[in-house]
Design goal:
7 strands; 3-stranded mixed sheet; alpha+beta
């Protein structure tokens, strides 16, 4: 009788593991999404059930949107078969607190003239049927257009000239449009 009462008492006093992930940013006030679910604004916390890699997305006006893939490995007491003891037999609550700190980077302000130049470049390359990398104006390297056949300097099959003119280096004016 005493053993049964003691067993019932021990079973009623089982503990649990509380898992909590806290996200902090410098500066605070960023909107937080964990695994594409909105959590709140930093600093904020959310509970979780499973360990593994979490996708954390942070957005704040005036700062670059940051996406962090944070690995959350299980602690030693959550590895099988110890996890059974930690979650069902140990009589006290166990807290597993994880903190992710992210330094937000200010968003680069692009001058209006650079945006206009980029728009003209994209429009002209779209008319010519060519593809221009998105970072062409953000680097000092000249824009290199791929050859249609994949062989440098050969132009089109049959010796025909290329249907477009090579793009000028960044900061140089475009040649006049042909009718």
């Amino acid at each position: 009788m005493v053993a049964a009462l003691l067993a019932a008492l021990l079973l009623s006093m089982t503990g649990c593991v509380r898992r909590r992930l806290t996200v902090r940013t410098t500066p605070p006030g960023a909107q937080v999404f964990i695994d594409d679910q909105e959590i709140g604004t930093t600093p904020c916390s959310a509970s979780y059930v499973y360990y593994g890699t979490r996708k954390i997305t942070l957005m704040k006006d005036g700062y670059r949107t940051e996406t962090v893939f944070q690995k959350i490995p299980p602690p030693w007491y959550e590895i099988s078969p110890l996890d059974f003891l930690a979650e069902n037999v140990y009589p006290l609550e166990v807290r597993d607190e994880r903190i992710v700190d992210v330094q937000l980077v200010p968003e680069e302000l692009v001058p209006q003239q650079k945006l206009i130049d980029r728009a003209a470049l994209l429009r002209d390359s779209a008319r010519a049927g060519t593809v221009t990398p998105l970072t062409a104006l953000s680097t000092s390297a000249p824009v290199v257009q791929p050859e249609p056949t994949g062989f440098p300097g050969q132009g089109l099959p049959g010796g025909q000239p290329l249907p477009y003119e090579p793009l000028p280096a960044p900061g140089r004016p475009f040649p006049p449009q042909r009718p």
